[in-house]
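Q: May I have one protein plus its fold?
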Amino acid sequence: MKKLLYFFTFAFSLLIVFSCEPARDQNGDLLFGVDGAGGTGGGGTPPSGRLLTKMESHAIDLETGEMSDETLTFQYEGTKLVSTTDQDGNVTLITYNSNNRISKLTSAGQTATLEYSGSNVSKLTSDITGLLKTTSTFTYSGSKLTKVATIHEFTFPIPMKSYIEGNYTYSGSNIVKTIIKTGIYNFDGQLEMSPDDQVYDISFDDKKSPYKLLPSEYLSYMFGMGPHGAFLQSANNHLQLKISATGTPAETTNYTHIYDSEGYPMKTTSSADEYIIYTYK
């Protein structure tokens, strides 16, 4: 769902990537738990067999400035996630390797592949035909993800190569601080880093994250496309996000959650009156 990361304000690189993807609206289409690499592990077998089946967002379209509604549904064979479908009927198919880990995601005009080092995703490569190639590498301390470095290589509308890096600090099983570094490759192919970093400080509740019900590799795929989404690698649900950068005032967004009897959020609302509704079975 294209609005979800806007709703969470983790937008920069995801906006860049998915605004270029065929068969999606201009702002992109994104949806996005922990167990080190996040989520439920290989094959997507969720805790107690519970499944996340749908997410619905009501959020501001940054292009039009108006509220819009989108959905993403998750399809399973048994408890294995095999595809996703958005509100326009666009389908992403999910392929598994011999170790029952996600190896490829394919949709109209895009193919993404995942590589592994042991049980951890080590590299993500995504190709959007004629538009963009994304390459992300993942660094861990034990099983905890500590860094994602992503290179975007654009071929349209003009050739351009950019770099974005996320560095993560944990408290228990939640990422409580993210430092984002960015850069652009010049005409000589040299990386010129921005002197200004963005810092994301995040606080969490003690309830269960719905994203943890999705396969860890699927979340790593989303995380690799844009390393702002600390909620993907965290066990609980965020309550406050504070974004600060050199020379600019900090921006703070607060979140409230309505939970079901099992401690999962049914609805998350931001202080900007945007929301996400979660459906389970």
